[in-house]
Amino acid sequence: MSKLKAQVPAFDYLGGRDFTEKLKEVSGCSTYDLLADYYGVPKSTFFTWHSHNRTGFELIVRQHLATGASVRYMALGEGEPFANKADPVEGLKTHRLIDGALVEAGKISLDLSTLDRFGLKPSITKVIEDDAGIYYLNTESVDPVAGEYLIDVDGRLSINYLQRLPGKKLAIAFGNSTIEVSEGDIKVIGRIAMEMKKK
């Protein structure tokens, strides 16, 4: 009894940590905690794949359909993660800043190359809009030096210019005036890395 030779033989798929590292790269997630939240799967799943050298093929399909990430790159480690760096990032949530609180306002698309130029990835980007424009925050940048930041003061959010001062102090601009506070008096949510202003 003879067997037919496969016309499309199985590929040498990436498995285990080699595979999950590719997932981290295409999703922009720097840790497995973030990756678990990103895909909505338990972190233990990834460690099981590491132990048994497995490949999560369904996540390859999901990531490709959502962002256009290369199937060949995720499954085999060949080529580039995105064939066209201008592929849009779908579904970045936007929020409006109303009375010191963020209110979900919808979604926005932006190409990966634009985010990349400003040191942003989808997983660390928060988008806030108001009547003047749209602000893209880097939520990993929470140790202010100088620049505009989204800050929490006593449970109320606002966007303000911060300047670090000696003695673990910060100068906060409120309109035309500036006040000095200890860095422990406020919580920094993220730094505005990019903005689009209306004219």
Architecture overview:
With 199 residues, the chain is an alpha+beta fold. It folds into 2 domains: 16-76, no CATH class; 88-197, Ribbon (Umud Fragment, subunit A). It has 6 helices and 9 strands. The chain has helices spanning 16-27, 32-39, 43-52, 57-67, 71-76, 112-117, and strands spanning 88-98, 101-111, 125-129, 133-138, 146-153, 156-165, 169-174, 177-182, 187-197. It has a 9-stranded mixed sheet with strand order 2-1-3-4-9-5-6-7-8. Helix 1 packs antiparallel against helix 3 (43-52). It is elongated and about 80 Å long.
Total domains = 2
Structural class by secondary-structure content: alpha+beta
Would you list the SSEs in sequence order as H and E? Answer: HHHHHEEHEEEEEEE
N-end to C-end Cα span: 76 Å
CATH class descriptor name of the largest domain: Mainly Beta
Please give the count of helices.
6
Helix amount: 25-40%
According to CATH, the homologous superfamily of the largest domain is: Umud Fragment, subunit A
Rg from C-alpha positions? 22 Å
Give the second-level CATH assignment, the architecture of the largest domain: Ribbon
Question: Taking strands numbered 1, 2, ... along the chain, how are they ordered across the largest sheet?
Answer: 2-1-3-4-9-5-6-7-8
CATH topology value of the largest domain: Umud Fragment, subunit A
Q: Mean of the pLDDT scores?
A: 86
Strand content: 35-45%
Give the number of DSSP strands. 9
**Which residues sit in consecutive blocks of at least 5 with pLDDT less than 50?**
none
Give the overall silhouette.
Answer: elongated
